[in-house]
Amino acid sequence: MNTILIAIIAIPIIEIMLFIKIGENIGALNTILLIILTAVVGIYFARIQGLKTLKSGFINIYQNKVPVYEIFSGASIAIAALFLIIPGFFTDITGFILLIPFARRVIISMLIKKNNYKSKDEDIIEAEVIEDRNKKDDL
Fold first, then answer.
1. 3-state percent breakdown (helix, strand, coil) of the chain, nearest 5
2. Which of 26, 56, 111, 133 could form a cystine bridge with 30, CB 3.0-4.6 A?
């Protein structure tokens, strides 16, 4: 919960600082045009990656496999598209990183490993087996 609150406060501050620094170097109009360009190019690449992921998911379904990677990949592509639509350089860089298939695979594998370690510890139940004799066995 605290991480989300910090991100909500920190991301706009980072974006404003980047706007000021980049605007000083290349000018205000060029900064605005660069933001628009990254949004258009990013959405185009997000569409291409999304269609590839959808195709791969259908291939897995036809082969009776569960498209787990494709589901996570599709979600990360949707997040990347959202980051690319939001004006700002930090969110654009994050969105472009999420559009790279290798980066997505690394991030998804880290999330899956993190969740597997947690679930393994929670699934262990210690018990003792006690044999119960029926009265029929004694007769």
1. 85, 0, 15
2. 26
Specify the residue for token string 């690394």.
Answer: 106
Q: What is the length of the chain?
A: 139
Q: Where are the domains of the chain?
A: 32-122
Read off the pLDDT of residues 43-52 as tens digits, 9 standing for 90 and up.
999 999 999 9
Reference 72, options 115, 43, 38; nearest CA is 115
Spatial distance between the Cα atoms of 54 and 19, rounded to a whole number of angstroms: 35
pLDDT, one tens digit per residue, over 15-65 is 999 999 999 999 989 999 999 999 999 899 999 999 999 999 999 899 988
